[in-house]
Amino acid sequence: MTADADEGGSGALTVNFLTSPAGLTPGAMLKGRFRIIGEVGRGGMGVVYKAEDTRLGRTVALKFLTAPSSLGEESGERFIHEAQAISELDHPNICTVHEFDQTQAGEMYIVMAFYGGESLRNKIKRGPLAVEDAIDLTIQAASGLEKAHRKGIIHRDIKPANLLVTEDSVVKIVDFGLAKLAGKSHLKTQSLVKNLS
């Protein structure tokens, strides 16, 4: 996705979308820093890749917008909105955003911490959880949501698919794409797009 000022000089924001992250196959490098390991997930708005941050020597998740032209211009703004919402939060039960950037082709992506484990949805598919485990996971999710609410951020899409359970049984709330930021203006999103371009 690229964002450019209107050629007519009106200052209106024009957003152009690209259909998919280009060349993101295992071994490919992104911006000379992130080595792609492979695709780990795909949802309604995004595709997530596991990658190695070669500069800092850590594993990260790179989230790109998928098929934005079919989702409409609003999906690009929601994607930026997600990065802004998560970046305002620092809590052990909320996924960590390291940065937000775009490729040379103009495709925007979010760099997040990578967590080994699985979604609560997949965990439940294998069978019912023990009562103690269900209570523990619920308390952790509620703790993360409480932090978000104290910051004026309402997730609006909490479901088992958006709760990751790490290998250490720590819940991580993900996918803030539909989050509502109390008191935040639409202009913040537009200025971020302009600054990236």
Question: How would you describe what is shown here?
Answer:
This protein is α+β, with helices and mostly antiparallel strands. It folds into 2 domains: 2-115 and 185-196, Phosphorylase Kinase, domain 1 (2-Layer Sandwich), CATH 3.30.200.20; 117-172. 28% of the residues lie in helices and 31% in strands. The protein has helices at 68-71, 73-87, 120-125, 131-150, 186-196; strands at residues 2-5, 13-16, 29-30, 34-42, 46-53, 58-65, 97-102, 108-113, 117-119, 153-154, 163-166, 171-173, 180-181. The strands form 4 sheets. The chain has a 6-stranded antiparallel beta sheet with strand order 3-4-5-6-8-7, covered by helices on one side. The chain has a 3-stranded antiparallel beta sheet with strand order 9-11-12. Strand 3 and strand 4 form a beta hairpin. Helix 2 (73-87) packs across helix 5 (186-196). The protein is globular, with a radius of gyration of 17 Å. The termini are close together. 32% of the residues are buried.
